[in-house]
UniProtKB/TrEMBL annotation, chain A:
Alphabetically ordered keywords of this record: Cell membrane, Membrane, Transmembrane, Transmembrane helix
Cell compartment(s), UniProt: Cell membrane
Name of protein: FtsX-like permease family protein
Sequence ranges assigned to domain MacB-like periplasmic core in this UniProt record: 20-243, 433-635
PROSITE patterns from the UniProt entry: PROKAR_LIPOPROTEIN
Limits of the ABC3 transporter permease C-terminal domain: 288-404, 672-785
Keyword Cell membrane among UniProt keywords: yes
Main location: membrane
Topology term for the membrane: Multi-pass membrane protein
InterPro entries assigned: ABC3_permease_C, MacB_PCD, Macrolide_Exporter_MacB
Automatic annotation (TrEMBL), chain B:
Keyword hit for Translocase: yes
Cited InterPro entries: AAA+_ATPase (IPR003593), ABC_transporter-like_ATP-bd (IPR003439), ABC_transporter-like_CS (IPR017871), MacB-like_ATP-bd (IPR017911), P-loop_NTPase (IPR027417)
GO cellular component, one term: membrane protein complex
Source organism: Pedobacter planticolens
Pfam families for the chain: ABC_tran
Domain spans labelled ABC transporter: 2-225
PROSITE patterns per the UniProt record, alphabetical: ABC_TRANSPORTER_1 (PS00211), ABC_TRANSPORTER_2 (PS50893)
Protein family: Belongs to the ABC transporter superfamily. Macrolide exporter (TC 3.A.1.122) family.
Higher taxonomy: Bacteria, Pseudomonadati, Bacteroidota, Sphingobacteriia, Sphingobacteriales
The protein's name: ATP-binding cassette domain-containing protein
Length: 792, 227
């Protein structure tokens, strides 16, 4: 029976090539889109879950107290003193490792030197994560303080091989480290604090950095991770931690707590110290998108199948009279849809393989089908099965319910009122979804444009920065004058952080006439020397930049316009502010510039004068020369002064572009899948019109003989479809207006939803549908009536 | 075998009842070959459909092999289709996507007859109808008469006790029609299969041994034929 069903299903597919093609392609696109999004979702969901202990690995989070006993900020980070205390007092902690955040540092073998992400950690990190050792092992890898664990690709870059046990690398051009192990590269979905290129023991960190050695409660530049006993209740442990910390530290008003490391990536948003979701919302959105597109394709299938019901009805009738019951008929129709889905899956996987590289490029990630594990393949199989079921069930149940005598007598009126309505409802639903996606895409695009066009307060074009490493710290003035003399740059300045940065916030500010006893506004600090304003193209509102003509400038500060607003000075120049108990004189006020998120107003900035706090050199290129020429000159000069370090020149405009990344991802995805949704919907519409035209061939023939024009006939055929699109528009427009309004309200700076976006989306869809419909309508309206009437 | 008592069929349209059948009472015995005749719209096909349980009478009693059909559930009806009733249609109603052999096999599949027996029965029927060479052709590759032969073969293969034929030769040329009617007669006489046919043709009616004439939904005549 099954074999025969299968055979007949294949014959049916072959016979109705147009509709099979539409169904297979539609379903394949739907499935491919669905699989691609699921791949992305799998990738995101498996962040930091590579290790077998991953669910018991926790990282220490710190709450920063704000006003009214609330928590103003929560971040992953802790102090050096916390780790040893926890290890001693909390028995539930099996292993604990202190570490730093990643830092790009120089690592070299002979002349072969690279800046790579290095990490320091206590040896127990090897118990937290089960790294795959190519050479060496976990027991010996971190015994010797002056040793280093390389990842496979780092080893290959440095040595050209992974068999490099006990070979020597040079760290930061100073220290010789012995390679104690080489491990497999960490997966791409490893969180940024752990994705090192090489790993060094904490003991060595204590040698090179004094801040690591002292047990300190004030410096939060470290990360502490712990492996808990699998049966431990984390809330209990966190209560204990609170108590332990308070007994050891009277002024401990910064509660620490353990948070599952593998959750941090997707549930990383905290409000008042409590998790309020995070990127998981986007994941939900993508899953919805994936199944939405699949549903559209399924709807196509259902519509085509029920539209053909008249033809199939006869078959149902015959089969019933020769003894078929409903179950066997349902099985037959389901077999048909399963066969179709199966073919579609094969096409979908091919599509996926073809377009995955493009998709990866767009989103700047590295996905491969390999991310699907055995269990995810089971899921995929389930999805395929479900798709077949959804696509086939409605036709199956609908068709199998036909009364044989009606079907054989051809009395069936294309399935009755209810069926027609359902088909219309489905088409309307499809187009609703597509229109909502189009409008969303346009709004997201406009929002990104709006943010991009907002004045940034700096001129990022022709602006580059390099890290201030090695000799560049001490010989900055020399390099500066050489660079200026070479004509490659117009202005150079050094600063403690790059123009775009995070953190660096502080609160200990007092000003003249301050009303509150304590300041609660976070300020951002930048330390620089000369030419800060000039190099970055910041607009000076009052006063002046730091100048060599004023020796007193070492106790001067520049403040941003919002900082001035906080202080409330009317004549700011010459007024003083007290920061960390030191008095500073305001020498200039500049317009605010974007240094953090471009979507919200950034904290006020105070710029200090301090030649010792080095970090980044920023240069304004001389646009009279070509960029390549300028870069070559800069590279040559810095190499000369600082031969040990490779020159790592970054363009500020690309750094600032990265700030739009997450919204860009959203934009790209909704763009891509919105387009696909429209395409698949139109494909379905095309199929329906084609079928409807075929059915009405005779009617058209008669009408033509009676004198109907081509236009009349086209109207006749198109009108009912156009009506459905109009209904879809009427539903989709307010829906998307509401949804996008909500999305936009997330942003402090946002664009407005214009009526013309709605109009454009509506007319665009209508036009697309009209083109689809008219193509078919014209074809059948132009047909010779004699051909039509010859039938029957 | 078949007992009809006071069968009525009407459609109520805007309060007006339009009768198709009125007070039809008759009985058909095992082994009879009955032809139902009458002008267009007289209710012949409706009667046949009611007999074939494809339509339900609005009123009246219908017993098939001693069982009350009106009280039957769909499942029991399907059992009857599988085991006792074979249908032959004017428009053949073969399944276009199946070959000749598959069309004939279909009822056996629904009857859940094992594969080996299916094969032998199909081979048997094909042989009897001289269609072995055509078994892998599709219906649209056959002439009308050949299609109707397949239709009858399909009805016969499940070994029914009654064949209901709605103008089986209506779409055929006279030579082919004769062939079909001869076949029916042979089946009736040699295998004792009850045959009920609706026909327009006086000549075809003569093949049977009883003629029911219906006019305006009422049985006008019920005569025996001595073929």
């Amino acid at each position: 029976m099954f074999k025969l069903n299968l055979k007949i299903a294949l014959r049916n597919l072959w016979k109705n090539k147009t509709s099979s093609f539409i169904n297979v392609i539609g379903l394949a696109i739907g499935l491919a889109a669905c699989l691609m999004l699921l791949l992305y979702v799998t990738y995101e969901l498996n962040f930091d879950k590579e290790s077998k202990n991953s669910e018991n690995v926790y990282t220490v989070m710190t709450n920063i107290p704000g006003d009214n006993g609330k928590v103003s900020n929560t971040f992953e980070g802790s102090t050096t003193a916390l780790g040893p205390l926890l290890k001693e007092e909390i028995p539930e902690i099996k292993h604990l490792a202190r570490m730093n955040y990643l830092k790009k540092a120089l690592i070299a073998v002979g002349e072969n030197s690279f800046k790579k992400l290095g990490k320091f950690a206590e040896p127990e990190i090897l118990k937290l994560f089960d790294y795959q050792y190519i050479v060496g092992n976990a027991a010996t890898a971190m015994q010797n303080p002056k040793s280093v664990i390389l990842t496979e690709s780092t080893a290959k870059v440095l040595f050209g091989s992974t068999q490099v046990l006990n070979r020597v690398v040079k760290y930061q051009d100073k220290e010789d480290l012995t390679v104690s192990a080489v491990i497999k590269d960490l997966p791409d979905n490893t969180s940024a604090t752990l994705k090192f290129d090489y790993l060094m023991p904490w003991a060595f960190y204590e040698m090179v950095d004094a801040s690591a050695k002292e047990l300190n409660w004030g410096n939060f530049s470290f990360v502490t991770m712990a492996l808990l006993d699998p049966n431990t209740d984390v809330t209990r442990v966190n209560e204990k931690i609170d108590k332990v910390v308070k007994t050891h530290l009277e002024q401990a008003n910064q509660p620490y707590f353990l948070y599952p490391l593998s959750k941090l990536h997707l549930y990383g948003k905290f409000e008042n110290g409590v998790n309020v979701g995070g990127d998981i919302e986007q994941i939900y959105l993508f899953v919805a998108l994936a199944f939405g597109i699949l549903m559209i394709a399924c709807i196509n299938f259902m519509n085509m199948a029920t539209a053909k019901s008249e033809k199939r009805a006869k078959e149902v009738g015959i089969k019933k009279t020769i003894g078929a019951n409903r179950v066997s008929l349902i099985m037959q129709f389901l077999t048909e849809s399963m066969v179709l889905t199966f073919i579609a899956v094969i096409v979908a996987i091919a599509l996926l393989e073809i377009f995955l590289p493009t998709f990866n490029n767009l989103l700047n990630i590295k996905l491969s089908i390999g991310y699907f594990s055995a269990s995810s393949w089971m899921w995929i199989l389930g999805i395929v099965f479900l798709t077949g079921l959804i696509a086939g069930s409605y036709p199956a149940f609908y068709l199998s319910a036909f009364n044989p005598i009606q079907t054989l007598k051809k009395r069936i009126k294309s399935g009755g009122i209810l069926a027609i309505n359902l088909r219309q409802v489905l088409v309307v639903g499809q187009f609703c979804f597509a229109i909502v996606l189009i409008i969303s895409t346009m709004v997201i695009y406009r929002q990104i444009q709006f943010i991009k066009n907002r004045p940034m307060g700096i001129d990022v074009n022709a602006l580059v920065e390099i890290p201030q490493d090695g000799e560049l710290k001490t010989k900055f003035e020399v390099v500066k004058s050489q660079l200026l003399k070479s004509g490659a740059v117009k202005a150079v300045s050094q600063s403690s952080v790059g123009l775009s940065h995070r953190g660096q916030n502080f609160m200990d500010v007092k000003w003249e006439g301050m009303a509150k006893p304590l300041n609660t506004q976070l300020f951002n600090q930048v330390a620089t020397t000369y030419d800060f304003i000039k190099t970055n193209g910041i607009k000076l509102k009052e006063g002046r930049d730091f100048s060599k003509n004023f020796a007193s400038d070492s106790a001067g500060v520049l403040i941003s316009a919002t900082a001035l607003k906080v202080f409330g000075y009317t004549n700011p120049i010459g007024k003083t502010v007290t920061i960390f108990d030191d008095k500073y004189t305001i020498v200039g006020v500049f317009d605010d510039y974007v240094w953090d998120s471009p979507y919200q107003s950034n904290n006020p900035v105070i710029v200090f004068f301090d030649p010792n706090r080095t970090g980044t050199i920023t240069m304004r290129l001389n646009e009279a020369n070509s960029i390549a020429q300028n870069i070559a000159t800069i590279t040559e000069i810095t190499k000369q002064v600082n031969p040990a370090y490779p020159t790592d020149i970054k363009f500020l405009n690309s750094i600032y572009l990265e700030k739009y990344n997450s919204e860009k991802t959203l934009g790209i995805l909704s763009n891509l899948f919105g387009g696909l949704a429209i395409f698949v919907s139109c494909l379905g519409l095309f199929g329906l019109v084609a079928y409807s035209a075929e059915q009405r061939t005779k009617e058209f023939g008669v009408r033509k003989v009676l004198g109907a024009s081509v236009t009349n006939l086209m109207q006749l055929l198109s009108l009912s479809f156009v009506k459905m699109i109009v209904v879809a528009i009427i539903i989709a427009v307010p829906l998307s207006y509401y949804a996008m309004g909500k999305w936009l309200s997330k942003f402090e700076f946002h664009t407005e939803i214009n009526w013309w976006i709605m109009l454009l989306a509506a007319f665009g869809t209508l036009a697309m549908a009209l083109i689809t419909v008219s193509f078919q309508a014209y074809k059948s309206a132009k047909a010779n009536p004699v051909d039509a009437l010859k039938y029957e | 075998m078949i007992e009809l008592k006071n069968i009525e069929k009407y459609y109520a349209n805007k309060g007006v009842k339009s009768y198709i059948l009125r007070h039809v009472t008759t009985s058909i015995k095992q082994g009879e070959f009955v032809s139902i005749m009458g002008p267009s719209g007289a209710g012949k096909s409706t009667l046949l459909n009611i007999l074939g349980m494809l339509e339900e009478p609005t009123y009246g009693e219908y017993h098939f092999m001693g069982e009350d059909v009106t009280a039957m559930k769909e499942r029991q009806r399907i059992e009857l289709y599988r085991n006792h009733i074979g249908f032959v249609f004017q428009a053949y109603h073969l399944i276009d996507e199946m070959t000749v052999a598959e069309n004939i096999e279909a009822p056996l599949l629904y009857k859940k007859i094992p594969g080996a027996e299916r094969k032998s029965r199909i081979a048997d029927v094909l042989d009897r109808f001289n269609m072995v060479a055509k078994k892998d052709l599709f219906p649209n590759q056959l002439s009308g008469g050949q299609q109707q032969l397949v239709g009858i073969a399909r009805a016969l293969v499940a070994q029914p006790s009654i064949i209901l034929a709605d103008e089986p030769t209506g779409n055929l040329q006279s030579a082919q029609a004769e062939q079909i009617m001869d076949l029916f007669k042979k089946l009736n006489q040699e295998e004792n299969i009850t045959i009920l046919q609706v026909t327009h043709s006086e000549k075809n009616a003569q093949y049977g041994n009883r003629i029911l004439t219906i006019e305006d939904g009422v049985i006008k005549e019920d005569v025996s034929v001595n073929g």
